[in-house]
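Review form for a predicted model. The reviewer records the input and the model, then writes brief findings.
Reviewer: anonymous (R2)
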Amino acid sequence: MLGFCLTAPLLDVAAKLASASVPVGQITAARFIVQCALMAPFIWIMGLSLRVARNQLLALVVRALLLLFATFCFIAAIRVMPLADALAIVFVAPFIVLLVGKFYFGEDVGPRRVGAALVGFVGVLFVIQPSFAAFGVVAIIPLGTAVAFAFYILVTRGLSRRMHPVTLQFHTGLIASLFCIPVLIVAQGSGSDLFDPIWPTDLALLWLLGVGFFATVSHMMMTYALSFAPSATLAPLQYFELPVAALFGYLVFNDFPNMLSLLGIAIIISAGLYMIHRERVLAKQSAAARVTPPI
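Model under review:
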C-alpha cells in the first residue's frame, strides 16, 4: 500500500506533464491502452483464462466506464489545479461509499461515521473554495472523479471476489480502450481541445507511457495489498498519498496548497481516519459479540 502511495502520484505527474501538449481524451486513452498491453503478457505467463461469465460482463463494462470517467475528470482538473488540491477533493469518495451504503443498500452505519463523512465534505469545501476562485468551474470537476470512483469501488467489491486481479485489470483496460479509441477517431481533425488527438513528441510520448505504466503498477500494488491484509488495516496508509502528491506537485510544478486548502486537507484526513477507527471499533465489538461465553 505504501508502494501504491508512492507510485500513484507519479501517474498524476505524468498526466499533468502530458496535458501541456496532449488532449485529455488522448491521455485517458493512453492510460488504459498501456494498462491493457502491460497486463496481456501476465495473463499468458500465469495461464489465466480470459473467459468472462455472462452475469459478470455488465458489471465489468460498468466498472470500466466508471474508471474511464473518473480518470478523464481528474486529468482535466490537474491540467490547471495543483495535484494535492485535486486529489484531496477525490478523497471524498470513501465518504460517498459510506453514505450510499447506508441510504441505498441499507448497511448498518452509525451516526458517528455519518458525522465524520459530513465533516469530510466540509473539508472538501475548504479545498474547493480557493481553487474555485483561482480556476473557476474546473475546481468542481474532481467531484465527478470522486462520485465515479465511489461507485467504481462498490462495483469492484463484488467482482474482486470472483475474478483474479490480473484478469480484472486486463479486462478493465481492454473495455475502456474499446470505448476511447472510436471517440479519438471521430474527433480527429475536429479541433476539440479535449479529444482531437495529436502525434506526440518524444517527451510527450514518454509521459503518455508513464501514465499507463504508473497506473498499472500502482493499482496492482493496491490490489495485491488488499489480498494480503484487511482493508481496515491498509486504509489509513492510503492517506499517505496526499503528502506525497503535494511534495511531487511542489518539486515538479512549484505548486503547493494554500493555507485554506491545507486546512481542508487536514480536515479530510482527520475525518477519514476517524471513520476508519470507528469501523475497527465496531468490527471488534461485533467479533466479541459472536464469541460464545464460557459456561
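Findings: The mean pLDDT is 85.
Further findings: The two ends are 43 Å apart (CA to CA).
Recommendation: see findings above.
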